[in-house]
Design goal:
The protein is built from 5 helices and no strands. It is mainly α and 147 residues long. The protein has a domain of 74 residues. Helix 3 runs antiparallel to helix 4. It is flat.
């Protein structure tokens, strides 16, 4: 019987179960197709942003309480272990603040990209007379000179 167990052959060991035994026990083995998730929509990204932001803010609030408690313990006991815990708590809080700022930058980039797509105009069609078109162009030029 050929050795079809790729993991066992790659590691140079014998397979734990002989090939074909599982099929005999269970019946036929069906290979399911891979599920490819859809690309997230901008609404999904905003919802995920809100959830991540709430989680990060909660970590920051819990860190504040932990820092206050561990700071009191460290000050009262003068134990090096408490000071180590204090520094690690401070590090967690600083990383959470950094993550929050990175999250804000990412959502800002996302909203700018979405706004750019919304504001982009393709294939304009003007319906009107040539005099209406000239008047429209003159009005646009006036607005550009004012701003």
């Amino acid at each position: 019987m050929a050795n079809n167990d790729l993991i066992a052959s790659a590691m140079g060991i014998s397979p734990m179960v002989e090939p074909g035994v599982v099929e005999k026990m269970v019946g036929s083995v069906e290979v399911l197709p891979a599920i490819i998730p859809d690309k997230p929509s901008p609404q999904d990204a905003i919802r995920d942003f809100d959830k991540a932001r709430k989680n990060i803010l909660e970590v920051i609030e819990v860190s504040k309480v932990a820092i206050a408690d561990v700071s009191n313990l460290a000050e009262q006991s003068q134990d090096a272990d408490y000071y180590d815990s204090l520094t690690s708590s401070l590090k967690v809080m600083l990383e959470a603040n950094r993550d929050l700022m990175e999250l804000h930058n990412q959502i800002r980039k996302l909203t700018v990209a979405v706004e750019d797509k919304v504001n982009k105009v393709q294939n304009n069609l003007f319906v009107g007379s040539t005099s209406d078109l000239q008047k429209f162009i003159q009005d646009l030029q006036k607005v550009k000179t004012i701003s």
